Amino acid sequence: MQTSSFFAIISRMRYIERWALMRNSRPENLSEHALDVALIAHCLATLGNVRYGRHLDADRAALIGLYHDASEIITGDMPTPVKYANAEIRDAYHRVEDTAQKTLLSTLPDDLRPVYQKILSQQQPADADEAYLLKLIKAADKLSALIKCIDEAQAGNAEFATAKASTRTIVENMARELPEVQDFLTEFLPPYGNTLDQLL
Fold this sequence. Notes:
Elements: H1 6-10, H2 30-52, H3 58-67, H4 72-75, H5 80-83, H6 87-106, H7 113-120, H8 128-154, H9 161-177, H10 179-187, H11 196-199
């Protein structure tokens, strides 16, 4: 039986630093971000099911959250202002990202590849519930970024002030369409940045 490098590659998320264009008081790696997104995505899907009568797979939300930026192991983290500077760069990056995902999938055994393709490739939602779930995962990604900005502000780092304001605006716009995001903003976001003594 041949060996597969897939999980050895995935484990390298810990070496990919985010926010490369910013001065960080504490660096954040891709593994940390993926865990945050997974936890928040699971929460948002659970809120949808419990409070809004949805039928979302919260476990799947967490799993997709864990892998949502896996292609960056190959591409590195492209900062948002660069990635979306114009349509040409955005489209080129999406092509690079797609190629990186295919490269990752190619390292899996043939029998496992279809399972992980459904996790890594989220281009065609199967139904309305799946489409909504993907929106919540995207919101979880933005909430994770906002939390990073809050942490940096709490550490006295003014470098993240603009990112914090723009990310909060994006999240608040998402909350208008996704009530689960508004619930998270109201109930779970305010304690971020507090000390452990304050949290307990």
